[in-house]
Specification:
- The protein is of the alpha/beta class.
- It folds into two domains: 85-148 and 158-171 and 202-241 and 255-423, Alkaline Phosphatase, subunit A, CATH 3.40.720; 447-826, no CATH class.
- Strands 1, 2, 4, 5, 7, 8, 9, 10, 11 and 12 form a ten-stranded mixed β-sheet that branches. A two-stranded antiparallel ribbon has the order 3-6.
- A hairpin with an 8-residue loop joins strand 13 and strand 14 (845-849).
- The model is unreliable at 1-21, 23-78, 153-157, 184-189, 303-319 and 833-874 (pLDDT under 50).
- Residues 848-866 have a biased composition (Low complexity).
- The chain crosses the membrane at residues 447-469, 489-513, 519-539, 551-573, 593-613, 620-638, 644-663, 670-690, 734-754.
- Keywords: Membrane, Transmembrane, Transmembrane helix.
């Protein structure tokens, strides 16, 4: 009979060697992985140069079959278009607004070009138009001030006014003088100077300045994000090349200058430098000779989203209005601007590239907005980027790098537009994008409801354990008779509860977003998914025992998550426990809550599997199985092309090393636990370094984090993540207290403390924990199950410390781990437990029998009568 102590001191040499090789193998396996964006770029094929008109009012946009990836000189994104590029910003515009009859100009551009849903998240839940324009020009998340009136801080339907720039010579000279004074006394900046403005001056434009630009920038000072104001305009001015405006031989007069013309207050926000200076402001951007035009067409607006009056740009919305009428008006304005661009173009000039973007929200409810690109390099289909890795989805911060890539200019992020051609009819492509947008909106709206459901379910399970397992309840008349029924009831309830978190991911397999009532469809999909998981855990042969049911559910959850990560994270995205594209915290890979389920399911299954292998004499597999499956889990979680989860991979690796150490009979100490943590961190930093060696646009979270370490921004990022954890605890205290409640349940309801011999039975803690009639001590009498529990607890603890919004890791993990343990405790429902608690510091005795109330004493001299065996049984 093998000893049950899990802290032996001897370690076989070959196992130590295997453990030493783990770290090197991980770096070799994970580091050189190629991101999907890079793979897509290398395999992209260029297309033909066939063109076709879009419509009478939108004939400036044409269809040219070419890919926009950066991998080849012949690809669409790497070409240097001869014609203008014009960006029309319409905050509030969505793909669902596009209609063949009501918005003919938008429909024509959509039909001839590429489109995507656009995440416009900046800082805060909803994005004001000024913030959207400011972020687009900087290529980074930024918020436009001035700060909201303190009396209206709780109002999500309030935006600061978008200040129209001033073109008076006095205002411009005053701003330039202030900028020169700062440049002389402070560090060098990239702000505009008189020489720069003179070189970039375009015909038909003037220099303007945004009044009190410091107050507009104020919200970004302590936001944790680095904002390079006017980055798009500055890089085009400094690195751009002039392009011929005609297809024939170019002359000096027929050149498009490397400058950015801004029309409208929002466009001025995008083009302004850090001092609020706009180099080329105009009333008619299409008539200028700049290569890039930014045109503000105003906001769609909403009855709950009001702005200060700004003439000619419709930022003031009446209290009651018809949204369809507003969208039709925006389309009419777009048609007028397209006609002006066509009329302003010189005969034989190159075809322009037309971009229409919903640069911001227009109501208190954040949504995915519209992005359409038509012209050279954009054929009918969908767009994506390396930052989202999702066809038909872009970020607001992708627009500036994508335009720079189109001009052949390198951007700090290295992002480019990736095109996925489609032969579908325009209406079919619209319906597909609308479905994805509706899915994101429904998830965003019901996320808090589902979280509340999980929290409430966990609290009810917590209370049920406290009431039904209490000796006060079971000690009443008839309590001994109903005790087994109570335990089995809690076991079935716990097994059902354990399926809920995973069902949130499986719901993505159903097309619920296309139903007339998406919210109801989502609820039904979650319920059906939970029922399928519950039924799968009951199938024979594993469904005959509680261990088999829990092991099956754990393994199934782990395998589903692994398969999803390998195939593109389709279940993680737009999931109630994954990540939402409206929030924009993550677009691919393993999310925090998914990582919690991933870690708990893995180690819970390994503990049960090792116990079964050891009981059946498979001694080698006891070590081979956790090593193989654990390394596979680390590979899936850490591969930049799959999980791309920096903190989650360290947590998984740390839990794996703890499990291997326990299985290998290594005595754990504080020093060795610290070594495990450092070794895990070293492996992940090595992977991050290898990922950092790639091009900026092909990097994952690993490479970006290593770049932040190199540039010195890592501490700022860590501080922002810690602040996010505190913010989550403030806005969602129900989630934050799940973890301490789980600890209380394990320590007291299930008498886990009594498993340790240094807790005196007659002490206050011993008497308190003995109040509940838990069965977990019998479960943990199996050391292998105990090993799996300790490994899972280690992973969650590490995830709490080093993961973004890490409070979600142990909280979600507890919602799965505690039900698993309660279900396992039902295995001992028919066993009788009698605890006799003698004098203080004396040895306690627990007699456990499965079917008889008394057992014959072991024969004298047998191993069962030895002091060690008696101690193990206790």
């Amino acid at each position: 009979m093998p000893p049950t102590s899990f802290l032996p001191t001897r370690l076989p040499a070959y196992r130590l060697l295997v453990l030493g090789l783990v770290l090197g193998l991980l770096v070799l396996a994970l580091g050189p992985a190629q991101s999907p964006a890079t793979a897509a770029d290398e395999s992209a094929a260029t297309g033909s140069l066939a063109t076709s008109p879009a419509s009478t009012t939108a004939s400036a946009a044409t269809t040219i079959s070419a890919n926009t990836g950066p991998s080849s000189e012949d690809s669409g994104a790497s070409h240097d278009p001869a014609g203008k590029t014009i960006v029309y910003g319409i905050p509030g515009l969505t793909i669902s607004d596009i209609d063949r009859v009501r918005t003919p100009n938008l429909y024509a551009l959509f039909s001839s070009g590429s489109a995507a849903n656009l995440n416009v998240r900046t800082i805060g839940s909803a994005t004001c138009p000024g913030s959207g324009w400011l972020s687009m020009g900087a290529g980074a998340r930024a918020q436009a001030g001035p700060p909201t009136d303190p009396e209206q801080e709780d109002s999500k339907a309030t935006c600061p006014p978008v200040s129209a720039p001033s073109t008076s010579d006095d205002a411009v000279q005053k701003t330039l003088g202030s900028a020169d004074d700062v440049a002389k006394t402070g560090p060098r900046t990239d702000a505009s100077s008189d020489e720069d403005l003179a070189q970039s001056y375009a015909d038909g434009t003037t220099t303007a300045t945004i009044d009190d630009f410091e107050s507009i920038k104020e919200p970004n000072i302590d936001s944790g994000y680095s904002v390079d104001y006017g980055m798009l305009a500055r890089l085009i001015r400094e690195q751009g090349k002039a392009a011929p405006s005609e297809t024939g031989p170019a002359t000096d007069e027929a050149q498009l200058k490397p400058c950015v013309a801004a029309e409208g207050p929002g466009a001025a926000y995008a083009a302004a430098d850090e001092n609020g200076i706009v180099a080329n402001y105009t009333d008619d951007a299409a008539a200028t000779d700049c290569r890039l035009d930014l045109v503000d067409l105003g906001s769609i607006g909403s009855s709950a989203w009001l702005y200060d009056p700004i003439p000619n740009y419709s930022y003031t919305v009446p209290a009651f209005f018809d949204r369809e009428e507003r969208v039709a008006e925006a389309d009419k304005r777009l048609g007028t601007k397209l006609a002006e661009a066509r009329d302003s173009a010189t005969p034989g000039s190159g075809e322009p590239t037309i971009i229409v973007a919903g640069l911001g929200d227009s109501s208190g409810l954040p949504q995915l907005r519209a992005f359409i690109a038509s012209g050279p390099g954009y054929e009918p289909g969908s767009l994506s980027s390396a930052s989202t890795r999702t066809p038909g989805l872009l970020q607001l911060t992708d627009i500036a790098p994508g335009i720079l890539d189109q001009f052949g200019i390198s951007s700090p992020s290295g992002i480019s537009f990736d095109s996925t051609p489609s032969d579908d009819e325009p209406q079919k492509r619209i319906d597909d994008l609308v479905s994805e947008s509706q899915k994101a909106t429904s998830i965003y709206q019901h996320l808090s409801t589902f979280s509340l459901l999980l929290d409430t379910t966990f609290y009810l399970l917590f209370i049920l354990c406290g009431l039904l397992l209490s000796r006060c309840f079971l000690g009443r008349r008839g309590g001994a008779t109903i005790a087994p029924t109570v335990h089995r009831f809690l076991g079935w309830v716990s097994l059902a509860v354990a399926t809920l978190p995973m069902s949130a991911f499986l719901a993505g397999l159903f097309p619920w977003a296309r139903l007339p009532h998406p919210g109801f469809g989502l609820s039904v999909s979650v319920a059906v998914s939970a029922a399928l998981l519950f039924g799968a855990s009951l199938l024979p042969p594993w469904g005959r025992t509680w261990r088999g049911r829990v092991a099956a559910l754990s393994l199934l959850s782990f395998l589903i998550l692994s398969a999803d990560l390998i195939t593109g994270s389709h279940l993680q995205g737009n999931s109630l426990l994954g990540y939402n594209p409206i929030v924009g915290g993550r677009y691919y890979g393993l999310g925090n809550q998914g990582a919690a389920i991933f870690i708990v399911s893995l180690f819970n299954f390994l503990g049960l599997a090792i116990s079964w292998l050891r009981a059946n004499g498979h001694r080698r597999m006891v070590f081979i199985l956790p090593l193989t499956l654990g390394l596979f889990a680390v590979l899936v979680s850490g591969n930049p092309s799959w999980g791309a989860k920096f903190g989650g991979t360290i947590a998984t690796l740390a839990g794996l090393l703890v499990l291997l150490a326990l299985v290998s009979r290594i005595r754990l100490s504080v020093f060795r636990l610290a070594l495990i943590g450092l070794a895990s961190l070293a492996v992940l930093l090595g992977i991050a370094f290898l990922d950092w060696l790639r091009e900026p646009g092909a990097r994952s979270h690993f490479g970006n984090f290593f770049d932040q370490i190199v540039t010195g921004e890592a501490l700022q990022v860590v501080a922002r993540k810690l602040s996010a954890n505190l913010h989550i605890m403030q806005i969602n205290p129900a989630l934050a207290i799940v973890t301490p409640l789980a600890i209380i349940a394990i320590l007291f309801f299930l008498r886990y403390l009594l498993h340790f011999p240094n807790i005196a039975s007659t002490s206050r803690t011993g008497r308190l924990t003995n109040t509940w009639r838990g069965r977990l001590p019998q479960v943990f009498a199996d050391q292998d199950i105990h090993f799996g529990f300790l490994a899972a607890a280690t992973g969650m603890a590490v995830g709490l410390v080093i993961t973004d919004s890490g409070i979600a890791v142990p909280s979600t993990g507890a919602m799965v781990l505690l039900p698993y343990l309660l279900a396992l405790s039902a295995e001992h429902a028919d066993e009788k437990v009698t605890g006799r608690w003698p004098r203080r510091n004396s040895q306690r005795t627990i007699l456990t029998t499965a079917e008889t109330s008394a057992a014959e004493p072991p024969a004298a001299g047998s191993s069962e009568s030895s002091p060690e065996a008696r101690k193990d049984r206790t």
